[in-house]
């Protein structure tokens, strides 16, 4: 081995072991003299990296530090993340990734993933082939148009596919070598970025719809040609493109949209768990949404399917779900102004702009807030819910915390501690009936990495609604009786790998049942999922 190859080995994050290269490996690969004398274990390297991460001055600096580790040694990076998922996941993804995206062009050091600019329309196949891996099974793609709640961040949104894929590997065990983050750089309408000398993306406005859809079509066609069977997860696309793209592609190839379908899965799981706590069925519930956007309608759709799976007909299921948005109750009289995805929820009811009055007349067992209106679940709302229900289900799902419809403390206080509570953003622990509890957070990380692992292991042809429903049911099963009795609706995040394994196993069963698997059905699904789970190690990985 010549020097160039030895240096390449130390610079390749998939192969580099740094100080963990054995003496034999150092001699064989021309690495002698290129490393300090100590030969360390992965655990020793993790301990050092953990201390270095702790010493960073703030979370954004920790994000930058972790990105550097990912760039030099992926095994170390994932071993660190897996060592304490509840500590590191918020540093590589939300909430820190929001800041990281805003600062992306400032903190940028080395490139990761593919950037496909619309100026190369017509040549995407050629660009994608520049990627050095030939076996890619999982792509997360964004066009940067609706990054978290931060709006159009253009190419700065690349932090999202990178962070999301890190969670696929850390939280569930999708092998990182098969994953690829992609930015469809179609320009930005963010005036600040267009003027910013540091901005890294195309300095032009977003295109018209025809040009946009042609470009996305060219991309999906090229991916299927170069990486047949690869699953594409669409992430943080503006709702006006996200819904039509999902509608268009979900039956054509293996793809899903986590903002719509993953959110629906995790919220439905929270409802299943609440049903477990109340010893009731989903079909017994009546759900009122505050907010009828992509999140609300996606969740509403999946809940209606959960009710139908328990025997309700479609019309009855939809009649047990109501939407209330900025213009009041979503009713049939508004049908012409509703988006196609909102129409199934239009109620045969006179118009109303009084949310509390609708609670009193519709008598929901659950209210779900996806309106971004801070404080909308006020005392009157909480009181009305408590008067109707022994255990009101209250989910203020809007993010970030400053947009939450109520805080955990308000929900418990406003319902005499009777609430079954879960929120979109995290809230600090609080005392309920003398005991300290950690309020439940319905984080999509409980669903999408497990979905990815199941799709990867089964080489699934499609991602379906049934798979998300199965994931929701499986997630609700993972809470122990003790966790349930303590008021939790989602399992603690330090159990994420075990939880993801269970969810992936059940989803894989559904993939086989639906006929979407392209491998033979194994005799034991949990063992099969385990065999496909990536465990960070310096030993060579088995690939299947
Ligand atoms: P969206 O813009 O598509 O929809 C917002 C909805 O709220 C619209 O129907 C709008 O009419 C309604 N609304 C606005 N002001 C209102 C008011 N004063 N009263 C009643 N309704 C009002 O947004 P979205 O993508 O559906 O997301 C909504 C919220 O859900 C966001 O805060 C988002 O962060 C959150 N969310 C959370 C998760 C999660 O925690 N897992 C996942 C996805 C979305």
Topology of this structure?
Blueprint: H1 3-11, H2 23-28, H3 42-54, H4 59-72, H5 74-83, H6 85-92, H7 96-102, H8 104-107, E1 114-117, H9 124-128, E2 138-142, H10 159-172, E3 179-185, H11 191-195, H12 209-226, E4 231-234, H13 239-249, E5 255-257, H14 258-278, E6 287-290, H15 294-309, H16 314-319, E7 321-325, E8 328-329, H17 355-362, E9 366-369, H18 379-388, E10 393-396, H19 408-414, E11 420-423, E12 430-432, E13 435-437, E14 440-441, H20 448-458, H21 465-477, H22 481-485, H23 496-513, H24 525-531
Parallel strand pairs: 1-3, 2-3, 2-4, 4-5, 6-7, 6-9, 9-10, 10-11, 11-14
Antiparallel strand pairs: 7-8, 12-13
Helix pairs in contact: 3-4, 3-5, 4-5, 4-7, 5-6, 5-10, 10-20, 14-15, 14-21, 17-18, 20-23, 21-23, 23-24
Describe the structure.
This protein is of the alpha/beta class. The chain folds into 3 domains: 96-253, Rossmann fold (3-Layer(aba) Sandwich); 261-443, 3-Layer(aba) Sandwich (Rossmann fold), CATH 3.40.50.720; 446-531, 3-Layer(aba) Sandwich (Rossmann fold), CATH 3.40.50. 45% of the residues lie in helices and 10% in strands. The chain contains 24 helices and 14 strands. The strands form 3 sheets. It has a 7-stranded mixed sheet, sandwiched between helices. A 5-stranded parallel sheet has the order 1-3-2-4-5. Helix 14 crosses helix 15 (294-309) and helix 17 (355-362) packs parallel to helix 18 (379-388). The longest helix has 21 residues, at 258-278. The model has no long low-confidence stretch (mean pLDDT 95). Residues 149, 239, 259, 263, 266, 290-296, 324-326, 370-373, 397-399, 403, 424, 442, 444 line the site of nicotinamide-adenine-dinucleotide.
